[in-house]
Amino acid sequence: MAFETIIVDVEDHVALIKLNRPDALNALNAQLVGELCTALEEADANDKVRCIILTGSDKAFAAGADIKEMSTKSFVEVYGENLFAMVNDRIIAIRKPIIAAVSGYALGGGCELAMLCDFIIASDTAKFGQPEINLGVIAGIGGTQRLTRFVGKSKSMDMNLTGRFMNAEEAERAGLVSRVVPAKKLLEEATSAAQKIAEKSSLTTAAAKEAVNRSYELTLNEGILFERRVFHSMFATEDQKEGMAAFLEKRQAQFRDK
Ligand code: HXC
């Protein structure tokens, strides 16, 4: 499908999706959100793709929901269309790993979009924030929920109540991002991480993603049981036999997703 607000490129088993509304700092309007969800679903269904990278421009990953588009909507409209439910629900349904490669602003819906990915690699120019409070609203796709689970109550309250931005160093310290790299190296680092993931069995990467995500939904004991049962189920795969045999034979494993 041809897209106007994003650019999609598939190479070496990695789908790179680049948000591309430079005049609006990649603000998330209805078109972009729709195209992004479609591209993610296409990548999820594409056998050639084993990992997905979501990125923006040097200046902005995404500066939030499109304020111009939202500003005149009524309660009846936003409640009626369940504004932003779709983006949350369609992205959490993606089974392949998604890495957010964030440079510049990741604000409001942009920060929430990054948090919807499986992990965030940030450039040293990245700035994260939930500044919705300045617009007379609150976060709407996880800024009060996922952010609180990722960085704790105190920092989340600080971000959501003052609207201040966190730089990359603070975001890494707080556990929001997994690594920080110089801006010029951002895509190289994200691609190298994606290629490492692409070398694994896609059965085990999907299982690992599912198990980590369950930790946000289950009690510790239930989560541990879920993890153990998934671990047990891996022994039904050829890739478990291959992975362990390759270790013992001191060679590289050749996974076949079986
Ligand atoms: C629509 C936006 C936008 C946005 C920037 N632009 N952010 N348009 N929605 N969220 C547009 C500007 O209007 C401007 O267009 C162009 O992008 C460049 O932006 P500037 O402000 O001129 O750039 P700069 O001075 O460098 O400031 C960058 C900035 C600032 C700090 C990121 O743009 C900013 O504060 N943006 C809004 C951030 C925000 O509040 N996000 C939360 C949105 S609410 P023109 O045409 O004037 O050149 C939200 C709700 C989520 O996300 C709830 C559910 C999703």
TrEMBL record:
Keywords per UniProt: Fatty acid metabolism, Lipid metabolism, Lyase
Signal peptide: none
Pfam families: ECH_1 (PF00378)
GO molecular function: 3-hydroxyacyl-CoA dehydratase activity
PROSITE patterns registered for this protein in UniProt: ENOYL_COA_HYDRATASE
Reaction equations catalysed: a (3S)-3-hydroxyacyl-CoA = a (2E)-enoyl-CoA + H2O; a 4-saturated-(3S)-3-hydroxyacyl-CoA = a (3E)-enoyl-CoA + H2O
Class in the EC hierarchy, top level: lyase
Function: Could possibly oxidize fatty acids using specific components.
PANTHER family: ENOYL-COA HYDRATASE, MITOCHONDRIAL (PTHR11941:SF54), ENOYL-COA HYDRATASE-RELATED (PTHR11941)
Protein name: enoyl-CoA hydratase
Record organism: Phaeobacter gallaeciensis
Source species taxonomy: Bacteria, Pseudomonadati, Pseudomonadota, Alphaproteobacteria, Rhodobacterales
